[in-house]
Amino acid sequence: MTNKEIAQQLGISAATLSLIINHKPGVSEAKRQEIFTELKNRGYAHIIKQVNAINDATHNIGFIIYKKDGAILDQYPFFLLLLEIFAQQIPQYGYNMVLHTIDERNNVSTQIQQLQNSDLAGGIVFATEMAEKDMEQFLALPFPVVALDNEFMTLNCDAVAINNRMGTFQAIKHIVEKEHKRIGYFKCKNEISSFKQRAYGYQNALAHYHIFFKQQDIIPTSFTVEGSFKDVDMYLNENQKNEIPTAFVCDDDTIASGAIRAFQAHGYHIPEDIAIIGFNNRPMCQEITPALTSIDVQKNALVTESVQLLLKRIENPLHYNQKYAIKILTECQLVIRQSS
What we know:
Layout: H1 3-10, H2 14-21, H3 29-41, H4 51-56, E1 60-67, H5 78-89, E2 96-103, H6 108-116, E3 122-126, H7 132-136, E4 145-148, E5 159-162, H8 164-177, E6 183-188, H9 193-208, E7 218-221, H10 225-238, E8 247-250, H11 253-265, E9 275-277, E10 294-297, H12 299-315, H13 317-321, E11 327-330, E12 332-335
Parallel strand pairs: 1-2, 1-3, 3-4, 4-5, 5-11, 6-7, 6-8, 8-9
Antiparallel strand pairs: 10-12
């Protein structure tokens, strides 16, 4: 029986139960004693932590940002949105948030050692730019960690990530329903896990709908709006006499924005001549003309699931000592606008 299930039986939230059994502020003493009695009567007294153990334990949880080269995070810091949600949620469970940044452009070993010596009960590692060898260093830390925004499917570590393949599948499904027969892909030149998964989703969706895959229809593109404009402009110049796809899915909205500008500069009409779909549903989607169809990611779900998973490891030693890893993928949703 999980703490979440026990909380449901008691008619309270999992967050409230966590505050009560860990003797943390935020709940009236009368309510705390009422729940203690209920837990004992139902045979769940073992989940109530010893007061001395709680007083000795740290109340800090780290939000650890890993920057490899900053090519993605420094341009459009998605992590700031997640950090804001994280900062709102953590106090509800009686913990403090501590922000750490690991920058690979400096000595990583020294930074990891500082992290190891910090007063943390656990950490959420924002892993967008990380490779698997980078994550391995965090698995040796003396507290549990959960990777955020990277699946790390070949590592035995907890992770919460976007279901990127689901996202590009939804995009292809929509385009196929619009009767496009040849679909291209603007793939970011920066190799990160999310972009790889989106490209896999694109190819898998083409196979699902029996659309012949052409390698030349995957076009490497810069991550910035201006950079993608130049790359797509070059692609169109090189293919003036060749047929090109009538629809394109993009790794990110920034790429889609630059692509739309390039197509329009070459006299194409969007979506009459070319349909474009982005990914991430950034605010810019409604500022572009025409407004950009995009894949929305569930930011609140990403943070909530990672926090809940980390708390299971922190507050339940038996759960923490289990050797299997838990991988959670959060859903995506296609937001249809004028560009498709």
